[in-house]
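Table S2 (text version). Query chain:
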Amino acid sequence: MKLFVDDTRPVPYGFLLANSTDEAISLCVQHHFDLISLDFNLGFRKKTGLNFMKEFIDRGLYVAHINIHSDDLIGVRYIIEEINSAIIEGKLNKEMMITRISY
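Corresponding structure-token output:
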């Protein structure tokens, strides 16, 4: 299964859509995903893709492949740094493949 976390882009074929961080976390708790494609900005004054990644890691969830499709370069960097820090700190005992493909 593949999850697409975004509040504005149309969902690509074959993905399940989550419009918010809370919805995405809920789906990740209920289902196993092979790929999560994540935007950084998820709405004005709403939790971001970085908030999602922090909670995802704190809950001990795992996905083998994460794609960051955001146009926010600073946000992308923060998400990647969060993943790498979690690996270094031992919060993630497996590496994630990280890609950047926009939709």
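Notes on Table S2: The mean pLDDT is 95. The longest strand covers residues 2-5.
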